[in-house]
Amino acid sequence: MACAPTVEELNAQFEDIQEEITADPLISPSVDQFGDDCRIAQNLKDNHMLYAKLVSLWTSSDKMYSGIRYIRGDGNCFYRSASFGIHEALLRDRALASEFLKRVKDLSSRLTNDYGSAVEDFCDYALDLFERLASGTCSTVEELHRAFYWRKLLKYVLYFYRYAVSNYIRAHSDEFLPFVVGLGYDTLQAFCYSEVEALGSESDHLQLVAFAQCFGVRITVEYLDCSEVESATRHTFPGVEKSINGTSDNVNDVVEVTLLYRPGHYDLLYK
């Protein structure tokens, strides 16, 4: 298994990319609290349709979100926001992290069986981070944020999630092939190669469905779109009918991630 970076190595790498992080962070280090002065409100204030929907996120009684963590818009924003949200949820619940680790180990085994040595490195690094969450070695959001900025993890985490979703889609051809054909692809392989495995390829409804089912997580997306309704439109991708341990459908046993979607981009929402 690949060796985990030391604290000194993490600090050195983190300092090397401070300028880039400050200019356009891959994942913002802090949560921007919602209100008229928050960054996204300032950016959307001249778009009356989207702005009204945005404000509903913290004023509507059935939403009441407290803030947002911004994700860089580089085509990987869905995977980066969803993966950070999953890790952050597990950070708060070591028992749940231990259960989730079992799923990740199973996914890693499937990937290495199907793809061989080409995927071993990023599976090892992904497993290492989940093991650190389960053991409590990584115990703060600041440590998690730093781990996501370790140079190899910048891509390895994305590759792990993307290849796991690709593998899931290929293994469930009866469910996904009709939709893939409707998107203009002849085969699942061609779709996955271009739209899932490739870094920078954006994610739409099909990828969200597959991601939620593959990892057994519940993904809620609040959409800022051009519809005539005055509030953000909510859509939930339930992932699984049962919890991670397969013994109940208690919502407390399921990792939940909430995202904000505005045309072409995802960010991470917080209650």
UniProtKB/TrEMBL annotation:
Keywords on record: Hydrolase, Protease, Thiol protease, Ubl conjugation pathway
Organism name: Trypanosoma vivax (strain Y486)
UniProt KW Ligase keyword: no
Species classification: Eukaryota, Discoba, Euglenozoa, Kinetoplastea, Metakinetoplastina
Enzyme Commission designation: 3.4.19.12
GO MF term (any one): cysteine-type deubiquitinase activity
A GO cellular component annotation in the UniProt record: nucleus
Protease as UniProt keyword: yes
SUPFAM superfamilies in the record: Cysteine proteinases
UniProt xrefs under Gene3D superfamilies: Peptidase C65 Otubain, subdomain 1 (3.30.200.60), Peptidase C65 Otubain, subdomain 2 (1.20.1300.20)
Protein name as it appears in the record: ubiquitinyl hydrolase 1
Enzyme class of the recorded protein, top EC level: hydrolase
Reaction(s) this enzyme catalyzes, per UniProt: Thiol-dependent hydrolysis of ester, thioester, amide, peptide and isopeptide bonds formed by the C-terminal Gly of ubiquitin (a 76-residue protein attached to proteins as an intracellular targeting signal)
Single Gene Ontology BP annotation: protein K48-linked deubiquitination
